[in-house]
Amino acid sequence: MHIARFCIVPLTILLIFCEARKYEDAKQVRNFRIGDPIELKIVSDRLEFRDVEGELPRNMFVKLPQLAHLKITGNISYIEPGAFSGLHALVDLDLFQNKIRYLLNGTFKEAHNLKYLNLGENELNYLEPKTFNGLTSLETLNMSFNRDLKVLRDNIYYGLSNLKKLNLIDCGLHDIHRSAFYGLERLESLDLSKNNLKFVTSENFDDLIKMFDLNLSYNRIQQLQANSFSKRLYALRRLNLLYNNMNCTDAKRVAKEFSSTVQVIYRTPDGAGCKAV
Ligand SMILES: *[C@@H]1O[C@H](CO)[C@@H](O)[C@H](O)[C@H]1NC(C)=O
Ligand SMILES: *[C@@H]1O[C@H](CO)[C@@H](O)[C@H](O)[C@H]1NC(C)=O
Ligand SMILES: *[C@@H]1O[C@H](CO)[C@@H](O)[C@H](O)[C@H]1NC(C)=O
Ligand SMILES: *[C@@H]1O[C@H](CO)[C@@H](O)[C@H](O)[C@H]1NC(C)=O
Ligand SMILES: *[C@@H]1O[C@H](CO)[C@@H](O)[C@H](O)[C@H]1NC(C)=O
């Protein structure tokens, strides 16, 4: 029996090896295309692939319906829609540190039990509208450090009706389209820090009626219409505006305009954060 280097099945109850005879010299996921879908004799509910490159073909995991935790890192460049078909028990999917450039609708269909998805540190620059449709259990989506993302287009998060936390830190964002966050009616926390946003209006966040934590720190925001924010974002309790292009006089005024239920952070305890004035 050979143990494939890239197939790590952590110990659960007993020592479990990954029976990967067919793939013993496969370093690239592409090679999986040659054979049937991955089939492991004994399988735990976790599977981790490291150092893989190439494309994830569809139906790759159809024979592993018990899988709950899947982690794939390396240089994956593309995921064919249907790659995760059959993973009805999947709860978390880690795809961070790959080279995924775009995602198409249907990519995650059938993963209706997925709660956590990490797409951080990829090279995403395009998301087809409704890419995440079907992920009705998803609670956390991490898309941080996709520096080529730049623009959030309409309807990309459509269908994520249970999402609570969305991270978009350091994604080069300079533009958020009006309905980008459409459908995220349960979102509680949105982190947009370390982007290049100059303007945000409350319309950008129209649907986020449950959002209580919004982080806009490290952007280039000069002005904010506190009134319209207060009117629409009923649940907002904390707004982080540290390190934007506002001088302290303006920042203070904006903070005052918010109702007292919203904690507006624009200055650190030592006075840094807003531009001194
Ligand atoms: C991924 O790509 C980088 C550079 O493009 C290369 O240095 C690295 O070895 C690749 N990793 C794997 C696992 O193939
Ligand atoms: C999803 O993509 C397919 C194939 O490209 C396309 O025919 C379909 O209209 C798209 N569906 C949605 C909801 O955008
Ligand atoms: C999001 O992903 C980034 C990059 O992979 C990672 O550093 C960060 O810890 C993740 N954050 C969460 C909340 O999972
Ligand atoms: C954004 O601000 C919130 C507080 O509003 C904080 O909990 C979170 O860690 C911040 N994120 C980053 C990346 O600094
Ligand atoms: C602060 O910035 C605003 C607009 O950006 C400007 O009108 C105002 O004069 C500035 N305040 C001071 C004290 O420099």
UniProtKB/TrEMBL annotation:
User: Does the keyword Signal feature in the UniProt annotation?
Assistant: yes
What SUPFAM superfamilies does the entry give? L domain-like
Specify the signal sequence span.
1-20
Please provide an example of a Pfam family that matches this protein in its UniProt record.
LRR_8
Identify one Gene Ontology CC term for this UniProt entry: plasma membrane
Looking at the keywords, is Repeat present? Answer: yes
Q: Which UniProt keywords apply?
A: Leucine-rich repeat, Repeat, Signal
Concerning InterPro entries, the annotation shows: Leu-rich_rpt, Leu-rich_rpt_typical-subtyp, LRR_dom_sf, LRR_TM_domain-containing
Q: What is this protein called?
A: Uncharacterized protein
Report the source organism. Answer: Brassicogethes aeneus (Rape pollen beetle)
In the record, what lineage is assigned to the organism producing the protein? Answer: Eukaryota, Metazoa, Ecdysozoa, Arthropoda, Hexapoda
